[in-house]
Amino acid sequence: MADFSFADQAALPPDLAAARILVVDDNAVNLTVLAELLDEAGYQQVVTESSSTQAVKRWLTEAFDLLLLDIRMPELDGHGVMRLLKNHLAPDDYLPCLILTAQTDRETRQAALDAGAVDFITKPFDFEDALKRIRNALHTRLIHQKARHKAADLAQTVGAQQAELQSKAQDLAYLAAHDPLTGLLNRHALTERLHGLLAEGSQGLTFALIEITDADQLLLLDGIESVDLLLRTVAGRLQLALNNHFGLCGIWHGQTFLCVLPLTGQAARALLDQLMPQVFAPIRHDAFQLSIHGRGGYAEAVAPPGALLNEAGVQQAIRSAGFALASQHKRGNRLAPFDQTLADSYLRRTQVERALFRALEDDRAQFALHFQPKIDLQHEQLVGCEALLRWRHPELGWISPAEFIPIAEEKGSIEELGLIVIDHAAAFIARMQRETGRAVSVAVNVSSYQFELMRARGGSLVDEIDRILQRYAVEPRFLEIEITESALLSGFDWVLEKLHRLRALGLSIALDDFGTGYSSLSYLQKLPITTLKIDRSFVDNAANLPRQAAMLGSIVRMADELGLTTVAEGVETPADLAILKNLNCTVAQGYYYSRPLPADAFLDWMRQFPAPAAE
Ligand code: C2E
Ligand code: MG
Ligand code: MG
């Protein structure tokens, strides 16, 4: 730092000139001398104070940059002043104090330094020396102040940044807990809230799952904006309905909402009964109206007496609500309660569905055909058999076709399964010829889905059948196709064409379960069928029911006039047989003759039964 001299006065930098200096001395002369000296040196803000206690007050209430402090003063001496002022210092501050003291007073100097004084000005004053020390002390003080201000600014900036980070973190927390489209809680947040409810202690809650099922269709027809509108509207309605009852709701998955009610029993039911009409009311938007379709299910979790609900109870109830939902029609807009029987059948169905899929993938040996004889009534001869699919699963045991065929149809595996059946039937015809020296016709059941699925994949069931027969070198006349009337509903003309092709190949065709379906007589004259299989329900107990016997008789006569063979299904008793013979029914099939038999057993049976003369 440059040495100060009187010649330098004009050079006093503005920040030093503007510094505020407090001079404290009980001696008025000293005060005047110093004030004049400082004024001359260019200091513009000098305050003098003769009372040390007054000085303390002023220092604490006004802002000063430097303290020139006499030590020996009445009441409160300089040490006392320093002590008091130091009590009010911030941790990063010091007392910018110069002690005014007699040159000789070494002890006082030492004590003042210990008390934190930064320098001395010796009395009597050496002006030049005094001004240099004042200037040095002030310079140091101003640098220190600047550094402190900077630090304070920095602290403020850091504080602001921290606040910003905090609010961003809050935004993130919001996003992590809510579905961005609807603003509803997501599954994670719902689960946490449920934990909270359990921690508070709850005795019963009701859970409803509600699914919107037509969003995919809406997406195709009206675009994604409509789907968004739909979801937001449903979310808003649900929230409104539940908020009024302290319920919770959120997105459980996809387009399925979970509602949690702090009620059970009748109270919950009353609320839920109102829910669907409110939530699924059509949306009126500008010029158009949007209808909403979906389904829902609910179940309650109730703690045993004297206990509180636990996590497992809640999870079970949500699963049950899911079962209740799955048992509902997709567009029924119904919210149904959980029902154990429905849940069991749903579970069983899923189990069978999975097992079927696995069996087709890995272990087709689980499937086999059984064969049930068909007997010509007039000659009491074996004229054919029906191939019936049997499935034995290693864990589930025997599963009836009445159970798995509809599942295979719905899941599309009937196409593969159907080909296995035709393949096994053709192989069996070849074996029959090989091992017994003759063959009877084998009828296989073909579902309309098999035609459809093949067509959808650009294939043809007819071509496939043709190939299989050729592979086993089997004459087409030994294979019969049984179709039901429902097969014709999927597209009469189209299926008709397939049937004509099968006939042209040389196969015979039977109309199965006649009398149970839609039984339009106009079908009969258009269809290229060879056989009418009269459903078991007409045969059963016909001997005792005259009206039923009359119907049976007229079906047989009509078929006869159309040139069709009649096969009566489900013939169980001699009485059944007698009436069928009486009515001139051509062929009978049923437990009376034999249950469906495994291939080996059928061949044995066949060896014992008379063959048709023409064979
Ligand atoms: P369906 O084609 O009407 O077959 C006749 C059903 O009646 C068979 O049941 C047979 O076991 C049963 N039955 C035969 N005689 C009697 C009797 O005297 N009394 C009683 N109560 N029942 C008798 P199954 O084998 O359980 O088959 C049920 C249905 O499953 C079949 O009815 C058929 O629609 C379907 N199905 C069976 N195998 C196949 C197949 O390979 N493919 C397709 N698509 N469907 C099949
Ligand atoms: Mg059949
Ligand atoms: Mg039948």
Shape: rod-shaped
Quaternary organisation: single chain
- State the share of residues found in helices, binned by percent: 40-55%
Q: What is the CATH-assigned architecture of the largest domain?
A: Alpha-Beta Barrel
Number of strands: 22
Number of helical segments with 4 or more residues: 23
What ranges have pLDDT less than 50 throughout 5 or more consecutive residues?
1-5
Output the CATH homologous superfamily of the largest domain.
EAL domain
> What would you report as the Rg, rounded to the nearest angstrom?
51 Å
Largest sheet: 8 strands, mixed, barrel
CATH topology of the largest domain: TIM Barrel
Return the CATH class of the largest domain. Answer: Alpha Beta
N-C termini distance: 133 Å
Structural class: alpha/beta
Count of spatially separate domains: 3
Strand coverage percent: 15-25%
Residue-averaged pLDDT, rounded? 90
The side-by-side strand order for the widest beta sheet comes to: 13-14-16-17-18-19-20-21
Small molecules bound:
ligand C2E, magnesium ion
